[in-house]
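debug: dumping io for the single-chain case to check the tokenizer round-trip. Nothing else runs in this session.
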Amino acid sequence: MTDTDEATKKRVIYVSSRKSDLALYQTREVISMLQEHHPDIRFEIGLQDTFGDSVLDKHLTQLGGVGVFTKSLEDELLAGRSSFAVHSLKDMPTQLPPGLVLGAICKRESPEDAVIIHPKHKAEILTMLAQIAHEESSQCCKAERSLLRSIEGGCQISMGVNTTLDDDTIKLTATLLSRDGQISITESTRGSRFDAELLGENLAREFLKNPHARPLLG
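debug: decoded output
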């Protein structure tokens, strides 16, 4: 049997990705990790144009709504044309559309990678992705996304969020900026990594009760 015959016989799983070089690199990295555990599966990448990638003459705040960098990938998943998608977590909405889940967060080198999956493949793909998921990175991201979700921070506000992990303690820091960069407000908190979502919610409350922050939150 030739290599071509062997490859033809392999089961195929379709993966959605944005077209940028960075997105493709991330997707290929995830596939490479999965193939270490599943050499019998062939992963094929389907490239998607997103609204945020195609509209280059407007500021993000003018695009409106959420998911400007993810909707086309979400549509592919919900239509069943792909089993999962790889995406930078920083550009994903804090609330996914009904039927989709955040399947795995890979080990954090810098805060960027995530995988979202179609419900039809949920049990199988989640089991597969669990083999490359990283618990500590996931908990840091839970804290960050909890903050952004609680504060309803999308592309309409300028906020940077970062976590550091020291043993079992998370330090969560966020900076809120005016659009011209002239005003910045930073808040920080720390606590157990096992209370990651609660840390995000608590830090959101600090911003929401800060009278200087409220005008920047819209």
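debug: round-trip ok. The chain has eight helices and eight strands.
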